[in-house]
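User: New here, please read:
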Amino acid sequence: MPGRLHRFSRAIETACLSGLLLAAALLLPPCARATTTGSYALHLKKHVFAPDSLTVPARQPFVLHVSNEDNHPEEFESYDLEFEIIVLPHHSIDVPVRPLPPGTYEFFGDFHPRTARGHITVHP
């Protein structure tokens, strides 16, 4: 049980930090924000992302719209994309992603890393 409590505490801290970062980004003047070129939907159901792979254009910012259809929170995380954000049960979030060079970028659900996995392929 102490491990779960620590993980939940870490999740709450992450959610608070994510909220502060989002608030700071929204306060930037419009010219300082990147214009997104597309939005891509990810659905989490039964601890599995669908689709589990996305293809996006290179060097163009985009938004990941992540909806959690499960009855449990999930921490949407990517070491490659450098974010970790809590998605509450039956809620959705929008994650702005910076322009990326061609490559493959992994993402996962930190609370269910064996099943909640996927990747984004960036093509030129």
